[in-house]
Automatic annotation (TrEMBL):
The lineage of its organism: Bacteria, Pseudomonadati, Spirochaetota, Spirochaetia, Spirochaetales. Involved in protein export. Acts as a chaperone by maintaining the newly synthesized protein in an open conformation. Functions as a peptidyl-prolyl cis-trans isomerase. Consists of 3 domains; the N-terminus binds the ribosome, the middle domain has PPIase activity, while the C-terminus has intrinsic chaperone activity on its own. GO terms for biological process: 'de novo' cotranslational protein folding; cell division; protein transport; protein unfolding. Residues 166-241 form the PPIase FKBP-type domain. The keyword Chaperone applies. It holds the Pfam family FKBP_C. It comes from Candidatus Avitreponema avistercoris. Its EC number is 5.2.1.8. NCBIfam families: tig. One of its GO terms (molecular function) is ribosome binding. InterPro entries: PPIase_dom_sf, PPIase_FKBP_dom, Trig_fac, Trigger_fac_C, Trigger_fac_C_sf, Trigger_fac_ribosome-bd_bac, Trigger_fac_ribosome-bd_sf, Trigger_fact/SurA_dom_sf. It is found in: Cytoplasm. This is Trigger factor.
Length: 453
Protein backbone atom coordinates (compact mmCIF):
# COMPACT_ATOMS: atom_id res chain seq x y z
CA UNK A 1 0.00 0.00 0.00
CA UNK A 2 1.35 3.41 -1.01
CA UNK A 3 1.22 5.46 2.23
CA UNK A 4 2.77 8.84 2.99
CA UNK A 5 3.10 9.68 6.68
CA UNK A 6 4.23 12.70 8.62
CA UNK A 7 4.84 12.92 12.40
CA UNK A 8 4.49 16.34 14.09
CA UNK A 9 5.22 16.66 17.86
CA UNK A 10 2.69 18.63 19.90
CA UNK A 11 2.71 19.98 23.47
CA UNK A 12 2.43 17.69 26.52
CA UNK A 13 4.07 14.75 24.75
CA UNK A 14 1.38 14.40 22.11
CA UNK A 15 1.99 13.48 18.51
CA UNK A 16 0.07 14.35 15.34
CA UNK A 17 0.29 11.73 12.61
CA UNK A 18 -0.97 12.64 9.15
CA UNK A 19 -1.42 9.85 6.62
CA UNK A 20 -2.09 10.04 2.88
CA UNK A 21 -3.13 6.91 0.97
CA UNK A 22 -3.08 6.90 -2.83
CA UNK A 23 -6.36 6.68 -4.72
CA UNK A 24 -5.42 3.33 -6.29
CA UNK A 25 -4.82 1.77 -2.86
CA UNK A 26 -8.01 3.27 -1.45
CA UNK A 27 -9.96 1.81 -4.36
CA UNK A 28 -8.35 -1.63 -4.01
CA UNK A 29 -9.03 -1.64 -0.27
CA UNK A 30 -12.66 -0.68 -0.81
CA UNK A 31 -13.15 -3.32 -3.47
CA UNK A 32 -11.76 -5.97 -1.11
CA UNK A 33 -14.23 -4.87 1.56
CA UNK A 34 -17.07 -5.05 -0.95
CA UNK A 35 -16.04 -8.57 -1.97
CA UNK A 36 -15.91 -9.62 1.68
CA UNK A 37 -19.48 -8.41 2.21
CA UNK A 38 -20.64 -9.95 -1.06
CA UNK A 39 -19.39 -13.35 0.04
CA UNK A 40 -21.48 -13.36 3.19
CA UNK A 41 -24.50 -11.11 2.71
CA UNK A 42 -27.95 -12.38 1.65
CA UNK A 43 -30.15 -10.22 -0.62
CA UNK A 44 -33.54 -11.44 -1.90
CA UNK A 45 -33.30 -12.60 -5.52
CA UNK A 46 -29.64 -13.54 -5.33
CA UNK A 47 -27.90 -16.62 -4.02
CA UNK A 48 -25.58 -16.09 -1.05
CA UNK A 49 -22.18 -14.98 -2.29
CA UNK A 50 -23.50 -14.13 -5.77
CA UNK A 51 -24.68 -10.54 -5.17
CA UNK A 52 -23.22 -8.21 -7.86
CA UNK A 53 -20.96 -5.58 -6.32
CA UNK A 54 -22.85 -2.70 -7.92
CA UNK A 55 -26.14 -3.95 -6.41
CA UNK A 56 -24.48 -4.36 -3.03
CA UNK A 57 -23.07 -0.85 -3.22
CA UNK A 58 -26.41 0.66 -4.24
CA UNK A 59 -28.17 -0.93 -1.29
CA UNK A 60 -25.52 -0.69 1.46
CA UNK A 61 -22.85 1.61 0.02
CA UNK A 62 -22.89 4.23 2.75
CA UNK A 63 -22.55 1.70 5.61
CA UNK A 64 -19.87 -0.31 3.78
CA UNK A 65 -17.83 2.83 3.03
CA UNK A 66 -18.02 3.74 6.72
CA UNK A 67 -16.75 0.30 7.72
CA UNK A 68 -14.04 0.44 5.05
CA UNK A 69 -12.95 3.86 6.27
CA UNK A 70 -12.60 2.65 9.88
CA UNK A 71 -10.73 -0.49 8.86
CA UNK A 72 -8.41 1.47 6.56
CA UNK A 73 -7.62 4.04 9.26
CA UNK A 74 -6.82 1.38 11.86
CA UNK A 75 -4.76 -0.70 9.46
CA UNK A 76 -2.67 2.19 8.14
CA UNK A 77 -2.04 3.65 11.62
CA UNK A 78 -0.79 0.26 12.80
CA UNK A 79 1.48 0.00 9.77
CA UNK A 80 2.68 3.60 10.04
CA UNK A 81 3.85 3.32 13.66
CA UNK A 82 5.16 -0.26 13.44
CA UNK A 83 8.78 0.82 12.94
CA UNK A 84 8.52 4.17 14.74
CA UNK A 85 10.52 4.80 17.92
CA UNK A 86 8.83 5.21 21.31
CA UNK A 87 8.80 9.02 20.93
CA UNK A 88 6.54 8.67 17.85
CA UNK A 89 4.60 5.50 18.71
CA UNK A 90 1.34 5.73 20.75
CA UNK A 91 1.58 4.71 24.40
CA UNK A 92 0.13 1.24 24.90
CA UNK A 93 -2.73 2.47 27.08
CA UNK A 94 -3.84 5.35 24.83
CA UNK A 95 -6.20 5.57 21.87
CA UNK A 96 -5.46 7.61 18.77
CA UNK A 97 -8.03 10.37 18.29
CA UNK A 98 -9.25 11.09 14.75
CA UNK A 99 -8.95 14.73 13.76
CA UNK A 100 -12.07 16.15 12.19
CA UNK A 101 -14.18 14.16 9.69
CA UNK A 102 -12.03 12.92 6.80
CA UNK A 103 -13.63 12.37 3.40
CA UNK A 104 -13.53 8.73 2.32
CA UNK A 105 -14.03 8.40 -1.45
CA UNK A 106 -12.70 5.36 -3.34
CA UNK A 107 -12.12 7.67 -6.30
CA UNK A 108 -9.72 10.00 -4.41
CA UNK A 109 -6.61 9.95 -2.27
CA UNK A 110 -7.56 9.45 1.39
CA UNK A 111 -6.01 11.89 3.86
CA UNK A 112 -6.58 11.84 7.62
CA UNK A 113 -4.79 12.79 10.82
CA UNK A 114 -4.80 11.42 14.36
CA UNK A 115 -3.33 12.66 17.62
CA UNK A 116 -2.15 10.54 20.55
CA UNK A 117 0.13 10.50 23.58
CA UNK A 118 3.75 9.36 23.25
CA UNK A 119 6.58 8.67 25.66
CA UNK A 120 7.89 12.06 26.88
CA UNK A 121 11.21 13.20 25.47
CA UNK A 122 13.04 15.28 28.06
CA UNK A 123 16.01 17.50 27.21
CA UNK A 124 18.34 16.42 30.03
CA UNK A 125 21.11 19.02 30.05
CA UNK A 126 21.93 19.28 33.77
CA UNK A 127 23.00 15.94 35.28
CA UNK A 128 25.87 16.75 37.63
CA UNK A 129 27.00 19.05 40.42
CA UNK A 130 24.11 18.26 42.75
CA UNK A 131 24.54 18.02 46.54
CA UNK A 132 22.63 15.03 47.90
CA UNK A 133 21.91 14.84 51.64
CA UNK A 134 21.21 11.57 53.42
CA UNK A 135 20.28 11.20 57.10
CA UNK A 136 22.86 10.18 59.70
CA UNK A 137 21.40 6.92 61.08
CA UNK A 138 22.90 3.90 62.82
CA UNK A 139 21.61 0.74 64.51
CA UNK A 140 21.63 1.06 68.33
CA UNK A 141 20.90 -1.34 71.21
CA UNK A 142 17.41 0.13 71.54
CA UNK A 143 16.67 -1.00 67.99
CA UNK A 144 17.83 -4.55 68.79
CA UNK A 145 15.65 -4.62 71.91
CA UNK A 146 12.62 -3.40 69.99
CA UNK A 147 13.07 -6.21 67.46
CA UNK A 148 13.47 -8.74 70.27
CA UNK A 149 10.11 -7.61 71.68
CA UNK A 150 8.60 -8.12 68.26
CA UNK A 151 10.05 -11.65 68.22
CA UNK A 152 8.45 -12.32 71.61
CA UNK A 153 5.09 -11.07 70.32
CA UNK A 154 5.28 -13.28 67.22
CA UNK A 155 5.97 -16.28 69.45
CA UNK A 156 3.36 -15.40 72.06
CA UNK A 157 0.56 -17.70 73.13
CA UNK A 158 -2.79 -16.12 72.21
CA UNK A 159 -5.60 -16.67 74.74
CA UNK A 160 -9.03 -15.18 75.40
CA UNK A 161 -9.09 -12.30 77.87
CA UNK A 162 -11.04 -12.74 81.07
CA UNK A 163 -14.74 -11.85 80.94
CA UNK A 164 -15.21 -8.17 81.73
CA UNK A 165 -11.55 -7.30 81.07
CA UNK A 166 -10.93 -4.01 79.29
CA UNK A 167 -9.04 -3.80 75.98
CA UNK A 168 -5.42 -2.68 76.29
CA UNK A 169 -2.52 -1.93 73.98
CA UNK A 170 -1.22 -5.21 72.57
CA UNK A 171 -4.56 -7.01 72.79
CA UNK A 172 -6.04 -8.58 69.65
CA UNK A 173 -9.54 -7.26 69.00
CA UNK A 174 -12.18 -8.47 66.56
CA UNK A 175 -14.55 -5.65 65.64
CA UNK A 176 -17.65 -4.72 63.75
CA UNK A 177 -17.73 -1.06 62.80
CA UNK A 178 -19.51 1.32 60.45
CA UNK A 179 -19.95 5.02 59.78
CA UNK A 180 -23.14 6.80 60.83
CA UNK A 181 -25.02 9.58 59.09
CA UNK A 182 -26.41 12.70 60.78
CA UNK A 183 -29.49 10.71 61.92
CA UNK A 184 -27.38 7.98 63.52
CA UNK A 185 -28.15 5.47 60.77
CA UNK A 186 -25.53 3.19 59.26
CA UNK A 187 -23.96 4.71 56.14
CA UNK A 188 -24.16 2.46 53.10
CA UNK A 189 -21.00 0.55 52.10
CA UNK A 190 -19.07 1.47 55.29
CA UNK A 191 -19.73 -1.58 57.50
CA UNK A 192 -16.96 -4.09 58.28
CA UNK A 193 -17.50 -7.42 60.00
CA UNK A 194 -14.81 -9.49 61.73
CA UNK A 195 -12.07 -6.87 61.47
CA UNK A 196 -9.08 -8.19 63.46
CA UNK A 197 -6.21 -5.98 64.55
CA UNK A 198 -3.70 -5.54 67.35
CA UNK A 199 -4.53 -2.50 69.48
CA UNK A 200 -1.82 0.14 69.34
CA UNK A 201 0.26 -1.90 66.90
CA UNK A 202 -1.65 -2.16 63.63
CA UNK A 203 -2.67 0.93 61.69
CA UNK A 204 -6.11 1.43 60.17
CA UNK A 205 -7.80 4.35 58.37
CA UNK A 206 -10.16 5.20 61.24
CA UNK A 207 -7.61 5.13 64.08
CA UNK A 208 -9.61 2.49 65.95
CA UNK A 209 -7.00 1.84 68.65
CA UNK A 210 -7.92 5.03 70.47
CA UNK A 211 -11.61 4.15 70.34
CA UNK A 212 -11.35 0.50 71.36
CA UNK A 213 -8.93 0.91 74.27
CA UNK A 214 -10.90 0.45 77.49
CA UNK A 215 -13.87 -1.27 75.82
CA UNK A 216 -14.98 -4.79 76.80
CA UNK A 217 -16.08 -7.79 74.77
CA UNK A 218 -19.68 -7.34 73.58
CA UNK A 219 -19.61 -3.57 74.19
CA UNK A 220 -20.76 -1.11 71.51
CA UNK A 221 -19.65 2.50 71.38
CA UNK A 222 -20.74 5.39 69.18
CA UNK A 223 -18.21 8.17 68.83
CA UNK A 224 -17.29 11.12 66.66
CA UNK A 225 -13.73 11.71 65.45
CA UNK A 226 -12.24 14.71 63.72
CA UNK A 227 -9.16 13.84 61.68
CA UNK A 228 -6.32 16.38 61.31
CA UNK A 229 -5.72 18.20 58.03
CA UNK A 230 -2.41 16.34 57.55
CA UNK A 231 -3.92 12.92 58.29
CA UNK A 232 -2.16 9.98 56.65
CA UNK A 233 -5.32 8.90 54.81
CA UNK A 234 -6.01 11.96 52.65
CA UNK A 235 -9.66 11.15 51.93
CA UNK A 236 -10.41 11.54 55.66
CA UNK A 237 -8.13 14.50 56.39
CA UNK A 238 -9.94 17.40 58.03
CA UNK A 239 -13.24 15.53 58.23
CA UNK A 240 -15.44 14.67 61.21
CA UNK A 241 -16.86 11.14 61.07
CA UNK A 242 -19.33 9.39 63.37
CA UNK A 243 -18.58 5.72 64.04
CA UNK A 244 -20.26 2.79 65.72
CA UNK A 245 -17.80 0.15 66.98
CA UNK A 246 -18.61 -3.22 68.58
CA UNK A 247 -15.97 -5.45 70.19
CA UNK A 248 -16.88 -8.99 69.09
CA UNK A 249 -13.85 -10.76 70.60
CA UNK A 250 -10.84 -9.84 72.71
CA UNK A 251 -7.63 -11.85 73.06
CA UNK A 252 -4.27 -11.26 74.74
CA UNK A 253 -0.69 -12.32 74.11
CA UNK A 254 1.26 -14.26 76.75
CA UNK A 255 4.86 -13.39 75.94
CA UNK A 256 7.65 -15.98 76.30
CA UNK A 257 10.81 -15.32 78.32
CA UNK A 258 13.70 -13.69 76.49
CA UNK A 259 16.28 -16.50 76.68
CA UNK A 260 18.22 -19.12 74.71
CA UNK A 261 15.12 -21.33 74.47
CA UNK A 262 13.22 -18.59 72.65
CA UNK A 263 16.12 -18.14 70.20
CA UNK A 264 16.11 -21.88 69.49
CA UNK A 265 12.34 -21.82 68.94
CA UNK A 266 12.76 -19.04 66.39
CA UNK A 267 15.23 -21.01 64.25
CA UNK A 268 17.50 -24.02 64.40
CA UNK A 269 20.42 -21.83 63.34
CA UNK A 270 20.36 -20.02 66.72
CA UNK A 271 21.92 -21.76 69.71
CA UNK A 272 21.86 -18.80 72.07
CA UNK A 273 20.01 -15.53 72.55
CA UNK A 274 23.24 -13.76 71.56
CA UNK A 275 23.14 -15.50 68.16
CA UNK A 276 19.65 -14.16 67.63
CA UNK A 277 20.71 -10.64 68.66
CA UNK A 278 23.67 -10.67 66.27
CA UNK A 279 21.46 -11.77 63.39
CA UNK A 280 18.91 -9.05 64.20
CA UNK A 281 21.66 -6.41 64.18
CA UNK A 282 22.96 -7.66 60.83
CA UNK A 283 19.48 -7.61 59.26
CA UNK A 284 18.73 -4.13 60.60
CA UNK A 285 22.02 -2.81 59.23
CA UNK A 286 21.31 -4.33 55.82
CA UNK A 287 17.81 -2.83 55.80
CA UNK A 288 19.23 0.53 56.80
CA UNK A 289 21.85 0.40 54.06
CA UNK A 290 19.23 -0.48 51.45
CA UNK A 291 16.83 2.24 52.59
CA UNK A 292 19.49 4.95 52.65
CA UNK A 293 20.55 3.91 49.15
CA UNK A 294 16.96 4.23 47.95
CA UNK A 295 16.56 7.63 49.59
CA UNK A 296 19.85 8.86 48.14
CA UNK A 297 18.88 7.71 44.65
CA UNK A 298 15.43 9.30 44.95
CA UNK A 299 16.99 12.58 46.08
CA UNK A 300 19.31 12.49 43.08
CA UNK A 301 16.41 11.92 40.68
CA UNK A 302 14.40 14.69 42.30
CA UNK A 303 17.31 17.08 41.75
CA UNK A 304 17.60 16.05 38.09
CA UNK A 305 13.85 16.46 37.50
CA UNK A 306 13.87 19.93 39.10
CA UNK A 307 16.82 20.99 36.92
CA UNK A 308 15.36 19.52 33.71
CA UNK A 309 11.62 20.12 33.79
CA UNK A 310 9.44 18.57 31.09
CA UNK A 311 5.76 17.78 30.50
CA UNK A 312 4.11 14.40 30.87
CA UNK A 313 1.29 13.07 28.68
CA UNK A 314 -2.03 13.25 30.46
CA UNK A 315 -2.80 9.57 29.88
CA UNK A 316 0.40 8.52 31.65
CA UNK A 317 -0.55 10.54 34.74
CA UNK A 318 -4.13 9.23 34.71
CA UNK A 319 -3.05 5.59 34.52
CA UNK A 320 -0.79 6.05 37.55
CA UNK A 321 -3.52 7.85 39.51
CA UNK A 322 -5.98 5.05 38.80
CA UNK A 323 -3.41 2.51 39.99
CA UNK A 324 -3.02 4.43 43.26
CA UNK A 325 -6.80 4.53 43.60
CA UNK A 326 -6.99 0.74 43.31
CA UNK A 327 -4.23 0.39 45.90
CA UNK A 328 -6.13 2.65 48.30
CA UNK A 329 -9.27 0.57 47.78
CA UNK A 330 -7.27 -2.53 48.67
CA UNK A 331 -6.10 -0.88 51.90
CA UNK A 332 -9.72 -0.22 52.80
CA UNK A 333 -10.49 -3.80 51.74
CA UNK A 334 -13.10 -2.68 49.27
CA UNK A 335 -13.54 -2.16 45.53
CA UNK A 336 -12.64 1.05 43.66
CA UNK A 337 -16.34 1.71 42.96
CA UNK A 338 -17.35 1.24 46.58
CA UNK A 339 -14.46 3.44 47.70
CA UNK A 340 -15.87 6.24 45.56
CA UNK A 341 -19.25 5.87 47.28
CA UNK A 342 -17.56 5.81 50.67
CA UNK A 343 -15.75 9.05 49.89
CA UNK A 344 -18.97 10.68 48.72
CA UNK A 345 -20.52 9.77 52.08
CA UNK A 346 -17.67 11.58 53.87
CA UNK A 347 -18.02 14.71 51.73
CA UNK A 348 -15.03 14.12 49.46
CA UNK A 349 -14.65 12.80 45.93
CA UNK A 350 -12.29 11.01 43.59
CA UNK A 351 -11.40 14.12 41.58
CA UNK A 352 -10.28 16.02 44.69
CA UNK A 353 -8.17 13.04 45.79
CA UNK A 354 -6.52 12.83 42.38
CA UNK A 355 -5.76 16.55 42.51
CA UNK A 356 -4.01 16.14 45.88
CA UNK A 357 -2.04 13.14 44.58
CA UNK A 358 -1.03 14.71 41.30
CA UNK A 359 2.19 16.57 42.33
CA UNK A 360 3.78 13.47 43.88
CA UNK A 361 2.54 11.28 41.03
CA UNK A 362 4.09 13.55 38.40
CA UNK A 363 7.36 13.64 40.33
CA UNK A 364 7.46 9.83 40.45
CA UNK A 365 6.65 9.45 36.75
CA UNK A 366 9.24 12.03 35.71
CA UNK A 367 11.85 10.15 37.73
CA UNK A 368 10.97 6.95 35.88
CA UNK A 369 11.21 8.72 32.53
CA UNK A 370 14.62 10.13 33.43
CA UNK A 371 15.93 6.70 34.44
CA UNK A 372 14.67 5.03 31.26
CA UNK A 373 16.06 7.76 29.00
CA UNK A 374 19.50 7.81 30.63
CA UNK A 375 19.89 4.03 30.69
CA UNK A 376 19.08 4.00 26.99
CA UNK A 377 21.28 7.00 26.15
CA UNK A 378 24.27 5.56 28.05
CA UNK A 379 23.71 2.08 26.66
CA UNK A 380 23.89 0.48 30.10
CA UNK A 381 23.73 -3.29 29.68
CA UNK A 382 23.82 -6.34 31.94
CA UNK A 383 25.51 -9.63 31.01
CA UNK A 384 24.41 -13.06 32.27
CA UNK A 385 27.55 -13.06 34.44
CA UNK A 386 26.50 -9.74 35.97
CA UNK A 387 23.09 -11.20 36.85
CA UNK A 388 24.68 -14.31 38.38
CA UNK A 389 26.96 -12.11 40.48
CA UNK A 390 24.04 -10.08 41.75
CA UNK A 391 22.14 -13.25 42.67
CA UNK A 392 25.18 -14.43 44.66
CA UNK A 393 25.22 -11.12 46.56
CA UNK A 394 21.50 -11.40 47.31
CA UNK A 395 21.98 -14.94 48.66
CA UNK A 396 24.88 -13.84 50.85
CA UNK A 397 23.00 -10.87 52.29
CA UNK A 398 19.90 -12.96 52.97
CA UNK A 399 21.89 -15.86 54.38
CA UNK A 400 20.23 -18.39 52.07
CA UNK A 401 21.39 -21.05 49.63
CA UNK A 402 22.42 -19.42 46.29
CA UNK A 403 20.51 -22.14 44.45
CA UNK A 404 17.28 -21.00 46.09
CA UNK A 405 17.89 -17.48 44.80
CA UNK A 406 18.60 -18.82 41.30
CA UNK A 407 15.33 -20.77 41.39
CA UNK A 408 13.44 -17.58 42.22
CA UNK A 409 15.01 -15.72 39.30
CA UNK A 410 14.39 -18.60 36.91
CA UNK A 411 11.03 -16.90 36.35
CA UNK A 412 11.58 -14.62 33.29
CA UNK A 413 9.69 -11.69 34.80
CA UNK A 414 11.64 -11.86 38.07
CA UNK A 415 14.89 -12.06 36.08
CA UNK A 416 13.84 -9.01 34.07
CA UNK A 417 13.21 -7.04 37.29
CA UNK A 418 16.65 -8.03 38.57
CA UNK A 419 18.33 -6.88 35.37
CA UNK A 420 16.44 -3.57 35.48
CA UNK A 421 17.57 -3.05 39.09
CA UNK A 422 21.19 -3.67 38.15
CA UNK A 423 20.96 -1.20 35.26
CA UNK A 424 19.41 1.45 37.50
CA UNK A 425 22.05 1.08 40.20
CA UNK A 426 24.82 1.38 37.61
CA UNK A 427 23.20 4.56 36.34
CA UNK A 428 23.02 5.99 39.87
CA UNK A 429 26.67 5.11 40.50
CA UNK A 430 27.67 6.94 37.32
CA UNK A 431 25.62 10.03 38.16
CA UNK A 432 26.71 10.17 41.81
CA UNK A 433 30.38 10.28 40.78
CA UNK A 434 29.69 13.86 39.62
CA UNK A 435 27.71 14.84 42.73
CA UNK A 436 28.40 15.46 46.42
CA UNK A 437 26.78 13.17 48.99
CA UNK A 438 26.82 14.40 52.58
CA UNK A 439 25.30 13.35 55.88
CA UNK A 440 22.39 15.37 57.11
CA UNK A 441 20.38 15.43 60.31
CA UNK A 442 21.06 12.79 62.95
CA UNK A 443 18.10 10.42 63.32
CA UNK A 444 17.32 7.27 65.22
CA UNK A 445 16.58 4.11 63.27
CA UNK A 446 12.93 4.26 64.32
CA UNK A 447 12.60 7.93 63.33
CA UNK A 448 14.14 7.29 59.93
CA UNK A 449 11.95 4.33 59.05
CA UNK A 450 8.89 6.04 60.53
CA UNK A 451 9.53 9.08 58.34
CA UNK A 452 9.93 6.83 55.31
CA UNK A 453 6.45 5.40 55.89
Amino acid sequence: MNVEKQFAPLEKSRMRLEIKISQADVSDFYQNVLRKYAASIQIPGFRKGKVPLNILEQKYGEAIRKDAEGDLINETIEEAVKDADKYERPLAYTQAELEGTPEFDPGKDFVFAVTYDVFPKADLKTLEGFTIEVPDVSVEDADINRELEAVRERNALVTDKEEGAAAETGDIATLRYCELDADGKETENTAREGFVFTIGKDSDPYGLSGIVTGMKKGETKETEKTYPEDYEYKIMAGKTIRLRVTVEALKKNELPALDDELAQDVSEKYKTLEDLKNDIRRNLELSLEDRITVQRNNALLESIVQANDFELPESMVNVELEARWRTLADRFRTTPDKLEKLMAATGSDKAATFASWRPDTEKLLKSRVVVEMLIEARNITVTPEDADGEMAKIAEKAGVDPEEVKKHYADPRAKEYLIDDIKEQRLYDQLLEKCTVKKGKKQTYEEFFGAEH
